[in-house]
Design brief:
The structure holds 2 protein chains of 2 kinds. By secondary structure, chain A is an all-beta fold. Chain A contains no helices and 12 strands. In chain A, strands 2, 5, 6, 10, 11 and 12 form a 6-stranded mixed sheet that branches. Chain A has a 4-stranded antiparallel sheet with strand order 3-9-8-7, with no helix packed on it. Chain A has a two-stranded antiparallel sheet with strand order 1-4. By secondary structure, chain B is mostly beta strands. Chain B is globular. In chain B, strands 2, 4, 5, 6, 9, 10 and 11 form a 7-stranded mixed sheet that branches. In chain B, strands 1-3-8-7 form a 4-stranded antiparallel sheet, with no helix packed on it. Chain B has no helices and 11 strands. The chains are: A mainly beta, B mainly beta. At the A-B interface, strand 6 and strand 11 of A face strand 4, strand 5, strand 9 and strand 10 of B.
């Protein structure tokens, strides 16, 4: 069965600092990979996705993620964090497009000024 | 384009009562999914519709949960009778049949069973 690991439950970074959120998945083939963000009181918003092709994908709000097949990872990065980025971030995978998403446990990002 | 709409946004019911959650997907999205997040736990898949048909209901916890999707449009998720452990946030998502966009989520329904 597929599984997704987000090893960091909480991360605190200073405003303006760089950010990397880790995500590892367990699946034999290349799955469909997603990052979502949930701000307080809001639903899940899609930041970016990877299906195939260029392994570095750009998303909204200045986020990017890199797919590394050899490490079964899909880490999310942002060069300079803003206070408004404080939220919970979820990595998710699907075996095929249209199939159910399997989510990681989430990483809560706190931004200190 | 309108997003995925869920209502109610909050519901507080007593144990043993019935609650019905509704989800309106994005128009034209054949795929509709229900997920649940119980406090402190991961977001878990409940079931997947393709149009009006149940494609995958492997995540439904027990027979107290009944999901329907009338005419392949909106969907309802009924919990009858509700138990304390059913409390959590219920998310709905939709996606197109063709590969392309992501899965669009609604804002969720926070269900509290007391």
């Amino acid at each position: 069965a597929q599984s997704v690991t987000q090893p960091d439950i909480h991360i605190t970074v200073s405003e303006g600092a760089s950010l990397e959120l880790r995500c590892n998945y367990s699946y034999g083939a290349t799955p469909y990979l997603f990052w979502y963000v949930q701000s307080p009181g809001q639903g899940l918003q899609l930041l970016l996705k990877y299906f195939s092709g260029d392994t570095l994908v750009q998303g909204i709000k200045g986020f990017e993620a890199e797919f590394k097949r050899s490490q079964s990872s899909f880490n999310l990065r942002k060069p300079s964090v803003h206070w408004s980025d404080a939220a919970e971030y979820f990595c998710a995978v699907a075996k095929e497009y249209g199939n159910k998403l399997v989510f990681g446990a989430g990483t809560i990002l706190r931004v200190k000024s | 384009e309108a997003g995925v709409t869920q209502f109610p946004s909050h519901s507080v019911i007593e144990k043993g009562q019935t609650v019905t959650l509704r989800c309106d997907p994005i128009s034209g999205h054949d795929n509709l999914y229900w997920y649940r997040r119980v406090m402190g736990k991961e977001i878990k898949f409940l079931l997947h519709f393709v149009k009006e048909s149940k494609q995958d209901e492997s995540g439904m916890p027990n027979n107290r949960f009944l999901a329907e999707r009338t005419g392949g449009t909106y969907s309802t998720l009924k919990v009858q009778p509700a138990e304390l452990e059913d409390s959590g946030v219920y998310f709905c998502a939709s996606s197109q049949r063709s590969r392309g966009g992501g899965y669009t989520f609604g804002s969720g329904t926070r269900l509290t069973v007391v």
